[in-house]
TrEMBL record, chain A:
Segments forming domain HTH cro/C1-type: 5-59
Classification of source organism: Bacteria, Pseudomonadati, Pseudomonadota, Alphaproteobacteria, Sphingomonadales
PROSITE patterns: HTH_CROC1
Family matches, as CDD domains: HTH_XRE
MF terms (GO), sorted A to Z: DNA binding
UniProtKB keywords: DNA-binding
Transmembrane segments: none
Pfam families xref list: HTH_3
Protein name, UniProt field: Putative transcriptional regulator
Native organism: Sphingomonas kyeonggiensis
Classification via InterPro entries: Cro/C1-type_HTH, Lambda_DNA-bd_dom_sf
Automatic annotation (TrEMBL), chain B:
Species in which this protein is naturally found: Sphingomonas kyeonggiensis
Keywords: Membrane, Transmembrane, Transmembrane helix
TM spans (from-to): 12-32, 44-70, 91-114, 120-140, 152-174, 186-206
Name of the protein: Uncharacterized protein
Superkingdom classification of source: Bacteria
């Protein structure tokens, strides 16, 4: 999934290692998320959202639009 | 002009080549190659895998012996990476797990080679069961302490290697049942499935950027 993690991290002045340390994961995990090689778990995505103070859908970009509900 | 990373790799390759030359020469002097020539093909393959695990395990243990050595030896280390006692401890546990894997692969062919068959093989089997239990416990502990990327890569490696092993096993078994190929021993199957797991787990780790 495409994401803006690299941009948000740079804006916050954090290195991949700094962010990894804050989240209790390896730097490779942060790098893998930033390079779209790994979609993080929901708990990790929520922690990212709390660290940067933005909703999850500001970090992770999904162009899927839901179909109309049958009774909508 | 080569970058410092390329230079470092070239130096390491040169050191590795010299080390390999010395090791090969010493092995020849001690008659190791004559000894290997007398081994069945499946034992040669499992011994080669065990040697690989042994070297990887020793590398991990040396790298985990201090944070300074880790910084110098870990190819994917970057300045600022989280590097506390936990990282080194889990690398040490991985190293021990690799050494246990090597011992498990080496022991049965060596035991047979040294005449431990029939009743004499029972203590060897008990020792192997104890080593296996220790390795299972160690792997469970490593998995529990790993972060989610490592767990995802482990799960992918398990799924991929199971799928490939099952495919190969079915193909060979079906051909053998039809009388088109010969039967293979359990040791050959075990060696192949171990080799498949190693290759698939390396591919999974690369795909997930774990060496980055």
């Amino acid at each position: 999934m495409k994401n803006r993690l690299r941009v948000l991290r740079a804006e916050a002045g954090l290195s991949q290692g700094d962010l990894a340390g804050l989240l209790g994961v390896s730097r490779q995990t942060i790098n893998a998320v930033e390079t779209d090689k790994y979609d993080p778990s929901l708990p990790l995505a929520m922690r990212l959202s709390k660290i940067f103070g933005v909703p999850i859908d500001v970090i992770f970009l999904d162009d899927w639009t839901p179909p109309e509900l049958p009774n909508g | 002009m080569a970058s410092s990373g390329t230079r470092r790799r070239l130096v390491r390759a040169a050191v590795g080549a010299v080390f390999g030359l010395v090791l090969g020469f010493a092995a020849g002097q001690f008659g190791l190659f004559d000894w290997i020539e007398q081994m069945p093909g499946e034992d040669i393959a499992s011994t080669a895998l065990a040697a690989l695990l042994l070297l990887l395990g020793l590398f991990a243990l040396v790298a985990a012996s201090s944070s300074t050595l880790y910084r110098r030896m870990a190819e994917n280390y970057q300045e600022g990476d989280p590097l506390d006692g936990t990282v080194l401890r889990y690398l040490r546990l991985n190293g021990i797990g690799l050494l246990l894997g090597a011992a498990l692969l080496l022991a049965p062919p060596l035991a047979v080679r040294f005449g431990y068959t029939g009743d004499a093989a029972i203590p060897v089997a008990i020792g192997l069961a104890a080593l296996l239990a220790l390795q299972v416990w160690l792997n469970a502990r490593i998995r529990r302490g790993s972060d989610e990327l490592t767990r995802a890569a482990l799960a992918e490696a398990s799924i991929g290697s199971f799928w490939l092993s099952q495919l190969g096993l079915f193909g060979w078994a079906a051909l053998a049942r039809l009388g088109l190929v010969g039967e293979v021993s359990l040791w050959t199957l075990m060696t192949l499935s171990t080799a498949i797991y190693m290759v698939v787990s390396i591919i999974a780790a690369i795909r997930r950027g774990m060496f980055a």
